[in-house]
Amino acid sequence: MKNQKFEVLNAQSKIHWVGKKVTGAHDGTIEIKEGELILNDGQLSGGKFIIDTTSIIILDVIDPTTNAQFAGHLASDDFFSSQKFPEATLEINSVLGKHIEGNLTIKGITHAIGFDAEINTNGDLLTATGKLIIDRTKYEMRFRSGNFFMDLGDTLIYNDFELNVSLTAKEVSETILA
User: Fold this and answer.
1) Which residues form the Lipid/polyisoprenoid-binding YceI-like domain (predicted)?
2) What is the pLDDT of residue 148?
3) Alpha carbon 119 to its chain's center
4) Which of 85, 126, 130, 145 is deepest in the core (most CB within 10 A)?
5) Strand 24-40 vs strand 2-8: parallel, antiparallel, or unpaired?
């Protein structure tokens, strides 16, 4: 049995987020602080990622003042509480084929999450892509949620947001077990 550990190369990896509302959507990026993936005999078996919630960038709002206000709001207690919780984590618990089950922790609140991912290795490099759909209300992000507020009309923000993840990781250790 061959165990391999791969560490995420931050500069070559990205997370693109999309949040939708009745009148459209906003999108941007958020940085991976660090992460690792574990493969057993070439198959993903585990891993853990730390996301830097202070690194949220909004790509679709061009005006600098509006962009700064929006970024400040996403960092506030209405959303990520980035000052109190500068990190979010995803820990992989199990993998069956392309389906991954894990625990996602945001604002100190942990919930199970499942998603599909494509994983490829080429020598000592690993690439992975996946899309996570997250219900923000599970993590006490209730701002303009139809589940908690009435008569929001066109100011309603949908509960689910997307994280489109593209990772590159480099092998850092290999162990052959008999």
Assistant:
1) 5-170
2) 39
3) 16
4) 126
5) antiparallel
Domain borders along the chain are: 2-176
DSSP 23: T
Element (H, E) at 120: strand 109-122
Task: Tell me how far the alpha carbon of residue 147 is from its chain's centroid.
Answer: 23
- In sequence order, the 6+-apart residues with CB closer than 8 A to the CB of 159 are 135, 136, 137, 145, 146, 147
Residues of the chain with pLDDT under 50: 143-156, 178
Where does residue 98 fall: left (phi above 0), alpha (psi -120 to 50 degrees), or beta otherwise? alpha
User: Residue 31: what residue type?
Assistant: E
pLDDT at 77: 75
pLDDT of residue 143: 47
Q: In this structure, are residues 174 and 3 in contact, taking their beta carbons and an 8 Å threshold?
A: yes
Return the amino acid letter for 6.
F
Classify domain 2-176 at the CATH class level: mainly beta
User: What was the pLDDT predicted at 5?
Assistant: 94
> Any bridge partners for residue 105, and if so which?
89, 110
Where are the alpha helices (H) located in 43-114, listed in sequence order?
Answer: 64-75
Query: What pLDDT does residue 177 have?
Result: 59
